[in-house]
Design goal:
alpha+beta; 82 residues; 4 strands; globular; 4-stranded mixed β-sheet
Length: 82
């Protein structure tokens, strides 16, 4: 199974949507709130190519087939996860 890592903020509606989408699909994920954990902000910037946009969805983080997607993209997640 692929791993999913989310970089989010508390006030982000798209972050809430992607979390609900993953929960409904019974996809486990690890979440990092980049406001509450500023060290994760630097990590997110590296993974996203410098973007500060959330949510950042990282599939298979730290693996050779790692992919990162900015925003809530259900069509992409459907293709990648199901």
């Amino acid at each position: 199974m692929k791993t999913v890592t989310l970089y989010t903020t508390s006030q982000c509606s798209f972050c809430s949507q992607v979390k609900e989408y993953l929960k409904n699909g019974q996809v486990p994920f690890t979440e990092f709130n980049v406001i509450e954990d500023p060290d994760r902000l630097d990590e997110m910037k590296l993974l996203s190519g410098g973007s500060l946009s959330v949510p950042l969805v990282v599939i298979n983080k730290d693996l050779p087939d790692q992919k990162a997607y900015i925003g809530f993209q259900p069509d992409v997640l459907d293709r990648e996860l199901f």
